[in-house]
Structure formats: structure tokens, C-alpha cells
Recover the amino acids of this structure.
């Protein structure tokens, strides 16, 4: 029995593998039939995702995001410090615009204010560096100009107004108060523009859409927004996915830009069905983003036939394994029934027994070959029997029961699935019996390759090796219930 304890300790300490992710190169995750086909190939349960998750790949917040905002803050300080130097406004606008191009997410209200402040200063700098005519038409001012409803406007001021339309701009926001009349003239024109909107229907179910750092009510299909550029990202289970900027035009509906378009998806699907993983660049980049923290497979289905290939290095070529090997260690209790217990006087007695097992199951599809050894211990009661030459009595309360046998898996030991084995055995039932046995073993999954095992079974030997010498029949039976651990090797 003591040999069972190390095995059980090792198996209890085993770490469950994380479920793999299957990316279906389909507009939607296919039906359960296709999903189950893939899981049978993997012999694992899997997480299934499709085009929406590719269209909005993971984009977690990083230290670089914080550094981008720190750089913007430094440049804002420099702009205000150097403002009155000779002809520096255009250079300051260039620097601030370059810093803003590195920013693609507004994390909160503080970020929003930082971006709005920078755009106000860019607008003021260009108003200082150019005449109104130059701002509307000069090539030099092209990057700082946006045309809305046919009217050229200062891009910086449009961006600031689009992101925070309720902001009350004061002279200090423009660094140089002399630009304030130009700003009020702009604000009057901009304020007359009708809103546009952003179509949110492409966002994956279960995500929170963040527009300009603020969450949108779940289930919202369309959000109205002032004309200009807006920052959009999605939150899925506390993680950022799908960073993007969306240009909204007056009275127009803007769609969320997709990292992977449906045509790109179609090309990747066709390639996979032909046995290739040479996908369009957008698809490959999205898959790489998904693969950073998970085991990834790609799949497609055509007329019921599933194609499946590994994507990440720790994903293996999926082939259904016909052979499984399971090791199991169990401990429990039961009874032993016989007439040969000391003091029984030839009467059949039922004695409580501790029971244990260490065994192996070799499965070939749903067929199983079993071998191992059970042991029953009857503390306080012993079996008396003669030694080899019948000259002295020997006693034991430890009854070894090595066995072999065959069985059938009603549910195979595969992935995070329950297992159920029905088996018959034949073996030695110490101290002097050969007989049959049977068992039912239920496995409750604790990981991809391990189960808590519940076993119910028994043995029966109608006669012993001593019967002829003693001139009587001495049967022995046992029943047991055990709990343990099973692990696929």
C-alpha cells in the first residue's frame, strides 16, 4: 500500500494544461458538429473563436503607452516654454503631431485631456505660423488641415472639439491669447456641423466598446459623435483588443476598421482547405497577436469536412490517437467474505477491509486492456493457512490480488471529458485463490490529462488451491469502493 502514496502525490501535483484556442477562418464559429470533430482530433476541449476576434486582435496596454504620454507631456511643456522664440510654432506643431501619431488608445479622462490639450496647442501654433489663406490652401499646411462639409478647418482644433465637445476653451489653452479670436471663429463654424456616427455592430459579443476613453452602453449598435477623429478600443475580460481610430464625417456613418477583412479571411480559408498556412499578411499578424498567450490552431470547414493545422510552436499536428495509456492509483474500503478467517470455525464471515490498487489501462479506441494489482487489508483479522509442506500454520491480513483483464470505455479518457470504464478481470486472490473480478470506474476530469477516479468492484473465487488437500471448498469474495487519481501518460 505504501507504494501507492508517491504515485498519488505526483498525480495530485500535476498541473492541468490550458485549453487550446481554435481560430475558425469563418465569419462565425461553426455548429457543434464541426467543433466536436476538432476536439476529437485534438483529444482536448478547446476555446473556439472566429472572424470577430481576428478583426479585433489583442492589443494590451503596455509600458510604451505610458511612455508615449510622458513624451507628449514633455513636448507640451517645451511648447509652452519656447512659444515666444522666433518662428518655432511650425516645428512645435510637427513635434506634437508626431507624438500624437504614436498614441492609439485613450485609457481614461486624463489621457483624453492630454490629447485635447495637445491638439489645441497644435491648432494655435498653425494659426500663428500661417495666415488663414495659407491654412486653407498652402501645401505646407496640408497635414494640419481637414475639410468638413466642403470647409477647410484647422485639424488640431477639429480634433480637440471632436474629442471633447463640451470643453470650455480659454485663452490659456491656446498658449498665446492673440489666437483666441481665430479659435472662436473656428468654433462658430464647427458648431454648425451636424454630427456623424460610428457603427458598432462589428464589435464581438461580450466586449465593452470604449470611445474616446469612455465605455459605451452594452448592446449599443451606433454611437453619435462630432465630426473628426475618434479613438476606439474594445475591452474583453479586462484586456484591450482592437485599438483603432475612426474618422467621422458630418451626417455619415463610419464603420469600425477591421484588422482582418472578410476578403482576407476568405483567402486564408481557401489556403487552409488546400493544406497551406500561407495566409494574407493581415491574417498572419492577427494570429500572431492571438498566439502570444495561448496554444493556437487554425481551422476551416467545407461541406462537413474539417481542416485543422497548428499555428503556434507548442501546438501539435492534430491526429486522433487510437491508443491511450492511463495509470491509476486508488484507495478505499470494502469487505472480504470467506470461511478461512481465524476463529470462523468454518462459517463464512464478512470482514471489513482497507482496499487499494495500482494499475494501468491500455486503451485502443474504446477497447481496454487492464493489468495491475489490488490489495485488501483486514486489520485485526487474519487468515490461517498451512505452509508449503503443511507442517505449520501461517497467518496474514494482507491479501494481494494481481490481475489482468479486458474492458470497454463508454467514455474514452480524452481531454477534459469524463471517463467511464466497464471491465472484467482474472487473477490471483491471495493467499490461495484464482478467480474473476469486475469493476466500474468513473473519471471526473481535473485537467486535460488527469481525473479523480471513483471505482466500484469486486472479485469472486469459488475454490482455493487447498480444497483438494482439505477435502472442502473454500470460496473467497470481496467488494470495494475506492477513490483515487488517474492520469493519461
Amino acid at each position: 500500500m505504501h507504494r501507492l502514496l508517491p504515485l498519488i502525490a505526483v498525480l495530485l501535483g500535476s498541473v492541468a494544461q490550458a485549453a487550446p484556442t481554435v481560430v475558425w477562418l469563418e465569419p462565425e464559429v461553426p455548429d457543434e458538429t464541426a467543433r466536436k470533430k476538432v476536439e476529437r482530433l485534438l483529444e482536448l476541449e478547446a476555446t473556439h473563436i472566429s472572424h470577430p476576434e481576428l478583426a479585433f486582435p489583442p492589443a494590451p496596454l503596455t509600458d510604451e503607452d505610458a511612455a508615449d504620454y510622458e513624451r507628449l507631456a514633455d513636448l507640451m511643456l517645451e511648447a509652452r516654454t519656447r512659444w515666444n522664440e522666433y518662428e518655432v510654432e511650425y516645428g512645435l506643431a510637427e513635434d506634437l503631431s508626431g507624438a500624437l501619431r504614436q498614441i492609439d488608445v485613450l485609457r481614461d479622462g486624463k489621457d483624453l485631456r492630454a490629447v485635447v490639450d495637445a491638439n489645441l496647442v497644435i491648432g494655435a501654433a498653425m494659426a500663428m505660423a500661417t495666415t488663414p489663406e495659407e491654412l486653407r490652401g498652402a501645401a505646407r499646411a496640408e497635414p494640419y488641415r481637414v475639410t468638413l462639409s466642403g470647409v477647410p478647418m484647422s485639424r488640431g482644433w477639429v480634433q480637440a472639439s471632436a474629442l471633447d465637445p463640451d470643453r470650455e476653451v480659454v485663452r490659456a489653452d491656446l498658449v498665446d491669447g492673440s489666437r483666441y479670436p481665430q479659435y472662436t471663429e473656428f468654433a462658430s463654424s464647427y458648431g454648425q456641423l451636424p454630427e456623424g456616427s460610428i457603427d458598432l455592430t462589428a464589435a464581438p459579443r461580450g466586449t465593452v466598446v470604449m470611445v474616446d476613453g469612455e465605455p459605451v452602453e452594452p448592446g449599443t449598435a451606433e454611437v453619435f459623435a462630432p465630426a473628426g477623429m475618434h479613438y476606439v478600443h474594445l475591452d474583453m475580460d479586462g484586456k484591450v483588443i482592437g485599438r483603432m481610430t475612426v474618422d467621422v464625417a458630418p451626417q455619415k456613418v463610419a464603420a469600425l476598421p477591421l484588422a482582418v477583412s472578410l476578403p482576407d479571411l476568405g483567402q486564408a480559408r481557401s489556403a487552409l482547405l488546400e493544406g497551406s498556412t500561407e495566409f494574407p499578411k493581415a491574417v498572419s499578424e492577427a494570429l500572431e497577436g492571438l498566439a502570444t498567450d495561448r496554444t493556437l490552431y487554425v481551422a476551416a470547414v467545407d461541406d462537413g469536412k474539417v481542416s485543422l493545422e497548428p499555428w503556434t510552436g507548442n501546438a501539435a499536428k492534430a491526429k486522433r490517437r487510437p491508443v491511450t495509456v492511463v495509470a491509476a492509483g486508488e484507495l478505499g474500503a470494502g469487505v472480504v467474505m470467506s470461511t478461512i478467517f481465524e476463529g470462523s470455525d468454518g462459517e463464512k464471515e464478512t470482514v471489513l477491509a482497507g482496499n487499494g490498487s495500482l494499475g494501468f489501462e491500455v486503451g485502443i479506441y474504446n477497447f481496454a486492456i487492464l493489468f495491475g494489482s489490488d490489495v485488501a487489508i483486514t486489520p485485526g483479522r487474519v487468515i490461517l493457512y498451512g505452509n508449503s509442506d503443511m507442517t505449520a500454520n501461517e497467518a496474514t491480513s494482507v491479501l494481494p490480488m494481481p490481475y489482468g483483464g479486458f474492458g470497454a470505455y463508454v467514455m474514452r479518457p480524452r481531454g477534459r471529458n469524463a471517463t467511464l470504464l466497464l471491465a472484467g478481470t482474472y487473477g490471483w486472490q491471495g493467499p490461495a485463490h484464482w478467480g474473476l473480478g469486475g469493476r466500474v470506474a468513473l473519471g471526473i476530469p481535473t485537467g486535460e490529462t488527469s481525473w479523480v477516479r471513483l471505482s466500484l468492484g469486486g472479485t469472486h473465487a469459488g475454490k482455493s488451491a487447498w480444497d483438494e488437500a482439505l477435502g472442502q471448498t473454500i470460496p473467497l469474495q470481496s467488494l470495494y469502493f475506492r477513490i483515487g487519481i488517474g492520469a493519461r501518460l
Observations:
- Residues 1-17 have pLDDT under 50 and may be disordered.
